[in-house]
What does this fold into?
Amino acid sequence: MSPVSTLEIARHAGLEALADGFCLADAESRVTYWNAAAERLFGIARAEALEQSLWSLLPGDTGAVLRERMVRSERGAAVVPLTLLADGELFSRHLAVHATRLDDGGTAVHFRDSTAERRIADQHAQLLESIRDGFIATDAEWRITYVNRAAEVLVSLRRDRAVGTVLWTLLPPDPPELAAAIRGTMVDREPRHLSAIHLELLFGRRFDAWTHALPDGGVSILFEDVTERLTKEMELARLAAEAEEASRAKSRFFAAVSHELRTPLNAIVGYTHLLATATYGEVPAGAVRASERASVCAEHLARLIDDVLLLTTLEIERLPVFPAAVEMEPFLGNVLPHLRQQAEAKGLAFSVDLPEEFPAVFADPERLRQIVTPVVSNAIKFTSRGSVGVQVRAAGQPGWMEIVVRDTGPGIAPEDRDRIFDPFEQLGDEARSDSANRGTGLGLTLARRLARHLGGDLGTGEPQGEGAEFIIRLPLAAQPATQLIADE
It folds into this structure.
């Protein structure tokens, strides 16, 4: 309350109508005014209270504590709790006693019923006792008013010694940012958060700390021990770094070995071709067949090495992409002829369905070739009889197109439609019994990753009848999609 004279307050008739107790004392602490609510609260009549010492009228040591705090307060004001018992604790009433020094040296005391607030505070205290985080509260004069059980353990602060003590006499000086945060919250009433601080008294432990303003003018500090969490995060980061380094080492190994194997493999292919063509003179027919067989196996191994090298390149870094408008008719005219020859050599019908004046697709021509070729080759390779067809069509969504590859082979079971895109994954059937002819198991994996690298996708469709259907989906040149890489 603002400083006013004792006489002015005493003349205020409204004080008698207050539900809260109110009294005044002069500079010698003699009671000069005692309102009706104070009579009801303490059971002391006004006539008995007047001229008595204010501090002696307050129950227990309330008067002594209140006077001591007023002396130490810069503002000459203090607040203390007071419990009044009536017919036992069952009917106890809790008061908040506010005392203020007046300008004439007297004292004004306000007794406010805080029973409901005390019940809520007790509930909050029970909650604070049950949490694992440390909690400390102070009043506006920096005196500690509450320390929960967790704080005793986490920050080595005994509550029986801490309560009533000035916070700064117990708080370690390090780290200084903690004291700065607490003082800052006391001044501007804004909450603050500190991450992974280290308290000087607790070697090796790390805490997150939050400061909040309290309604009575004090502040609260909440401590969470994050040492174990930080340790786990550091361990996970270390393991992730090791895994990343192992992946890079594996990729470097594959790339180096692939390059080193290419030279002898090319030599094997070349020399077996020379033997088969009698460059060094006539050789027995059996030796010719053996050299041809060796050449086929060497070429198969070379394709495997090329695929592995491309796969590891995708794992190490993104392949360079140079997207442009690709006209489908000339593109397929360059890519499909040798695939048509492969199909016809097996006695398969090969068809291409390309609408006239179809819009250009937005893609890198070289990467698109690396997508279409293995998909069509895969269809030819695993189709024993019937046909293989390539269809270009507009997708259901505007701005997109699809290249559909259909065959009349053994088909793909629904449960295998995702598995076939895994590296080195192949489905078992009679056509795959020859390891030199069945492929590396990487073609579809690489094709899907490259399709996604171009902003599109590769998946399976629902063929009409027997066989399998693969759908390559890409953006049209008129509406390019954002490029992305989607690692499986």
